[in-house]
Amino acid sequence: MSRYLPLFAAALLGGGCVPVTEPVGPVEKAEPDKALVGKWAVKKINGLAASFAVESIGITAPEVKGNPKGLMRGSMNDERDPMWFYLTTVGKYTYANVIVGGGDDEPNFDKEGAFAKWEKSTKKKYFVFRVARDGDKMVLDCGNNETFTKLMKAANVVDDGAKHVPFFHPPAGWHTKTLGKDGPDAVFDKSNRLELVREKAK
């Protein structure tokens, strides 16, 4: 499971995450947020996120031929293995769709052609986080998995049966259609999040 750790790792294995096979929005419509680029130091962690020693998160927006322009890359504690994500804004909130992959190899889109190959996969998986930035401060809400699971089951959305981190198969538009008007706020309830500040260049 170490491949799941590099970005936003605090939520992934502790049950405090939003695991889905359908992102909040399509990557083709995503725009990069250059204001997120840089290194962010973790100042406070609460909830299940505290189970992991996350000290910093680095974010870049590499330009790779063939990649969607909104695709960004993050890493935890300067780890080598990156996780790739893109942002989707719904109403007043922004969400990070973290691409987890679906096979033995986690996706790495550093090289031309890698994204096109991943696009052909029929087993795409994502973790979804709510992102809020205010100047040089950022909050990553990893979500309440227990609440998310209850909402998915109430809507008769099935998961893939995985033992440790089951991924749900919601329909497109699930963020508003399946969760409903108040569902997203119930899931991203501030119980499991990281508060970060931008590290100044030396």
Beta fraction: 25-35%
Straight-line N-to-C gap: 34 Å
Computed CA radius of gyration, to the nearest angstrom = 16 Å
Give helix and strand order, one letter per element, not per position.
Answer: HEEEEEEHEEHHHE
Question: Secondary structure elements and their pairing?
Answer:
Layout: H1 9-12, E1 19-20, E2 38-46, E3 56-60, E4 72-76, E5 83-90, E6 93-99, H2 114-119, E7 126-134, E8 137-141, H3 145-154, H4 174-177, H5 183-187, E9 193-198
Walk me through what this model shows.
There is one protein chain. A hairpin with a 6-residue loop joins strand 4 (72-76) and strand 5. The protein is built from five helices and nine strands; from the N terminus they run αββββββαββαααβ. Strands 2-3-4-5-6-7-8-9 form an eight-stranded antiparallel β-barrel. It is globular and about 50 Å long. It has helices at 9-12, 114-119, 145-154, 174-177, 183-187; strands at 19-20, 38-46, 56-60, 72-76, 83-90, 93-99, 126-134, 137-141, 193-198. It is an alpha+beta fold and 202 residues long. 14% of the residues lie in helices and 28% in strands.
